[in-house]
Amino acid sequence: MTPDRHTPIDPPRRPGGGSMALLPGLLVCLGVTTVAMLAQAVEERAFAHPYVEALVIAILLGIALRSVWHPGARFSRGIAFSAKQVLELAVTLLGASLSLGALVASGPALLAGIVGTVVLTIGASYAICRLLALPARMAILVACGNAICGNSAIAAVAPVIGADGEEVAASIAFTAVLGVLMVLGLPLFVPLADLTQNQYGVLAGLTVYAVPQVLAATVPVGLVSTQVGTLVKLIRVLMLGPVVVAFSLIARHLPREGAAAPRPATFSPTRLVPGFILGFLALASLRSLGLIPDAAVGPLKQLAGLLTIVSMAALGLGVDIRVLARVGGRVTAAVTGSLIVLIATSLFLIKALGIA
User: Fold this and answer.
1) What membrane topology does this protein have (predicted)?
2) DSSP string over 236-249
């Protein structure tokens, strides 16, 4: 997060301490992460797919813990480190799991349709959020979450635009709830819109937030829907890189509600595009060129996922529950409106491309 935005818990400004000063806060975040991952494992055992991911559980557990316990100076540095640097490292490692091969294989028409859907949804969602008086940075988080990949997109975009913990928590919490409702309700479009398995797979891939949720939404409909939905979803996830880079370029020009005027910025390559985004792009390029072996992709992706959960626990530990209560209705309305736009755009694309 940028220096002129407040982090969830401000670290004490004292000299020295080194890495050992981070340990207490890191251990708290790891403890919350462990509980969240165990909860997801229970879900997977019971339902085969997690309806509420560990990432969401971690941020909710962090908020709950923060409501009954205020971390003191001993814990604040490690929690702040987890909320910023750990998240940035997770985003960097995520690049190793993205390859441009799926883009080439999908065909130009579908690829253009997916890109157009993502861009249109981001623009429409941002407009809806601003009409509902949500802050600019929260509007971007909700828009990117809806348009690309839900919680992962919110987590990736947040440090680029300087969103604080409360904005991230509110965006993830309410997006996650509607994401689960999407999984449960989307199959109704098969009879309502008279969709084939192929068409429904495209619809699910364009609208459902996470890959596991795409599986949960398509497996009951059929194998073809599952295969098509997964492919479309993976291509949609590839949009995360260009979107993050784009927002890193415009972050300095975003409105600053309730904040002091921005300080003049001196030119720097890492200020124009943050270092962790350059790392993300570098790993994605290496993966596309085949320089990162397949055997390494799985572990790197798992590590990125683990670090993201740790950072979400840290963000939750810095959230004032009263803030969520104040913006909850508006965020829910914004996410719902954005989903309606996304579904309508996706159905139009299916018909326009003549997908059978």
Assistant:
1) Multi-pass membrane protein
2) HHTTHHHHHHHHHH
Is the CB of residue 121 less than 8 Å from the CB of residue 264? no
Distance of alpha carbon 4 from alpha carbon 162, whole angstroms: 8
Share of the chain above pLDDT 90, in %: 20
Structure tokens of 269?
């390559």
Nearest to 189 by CA among 342, 308, 300, 27: 342
pLDDT digits (tens, 9 = 90+) for 66-123: 888 888 889 989 998 998 888 888 878 877 876 656 555 556 778 888 889 999 999 9
d(CA 39, CA 337): 30
Which value, to the nearest 10 degrees, does the dihedral of the CA atoms of residues 129, 182, 42, 84 take?
-20
Helix axes 197-207 and 108-131, enclosed angle (nearest 10): 50
> What integer pLDDT is reported at residue 326 of this predicted model?
67
pLDDT for 6: 42
The pTM of this model reads 0.67
Mean pLDDT, rounded, for 2-21? 51
Tell me which residue of 304, 323, 302, 301 sits closest to 312, measured CA to CA: 304
Torsional class of 354: left (φ above 0), alpha (ψ -120 to 50), beta (otherwise)? left
More confident call, 286 vs 265: 286
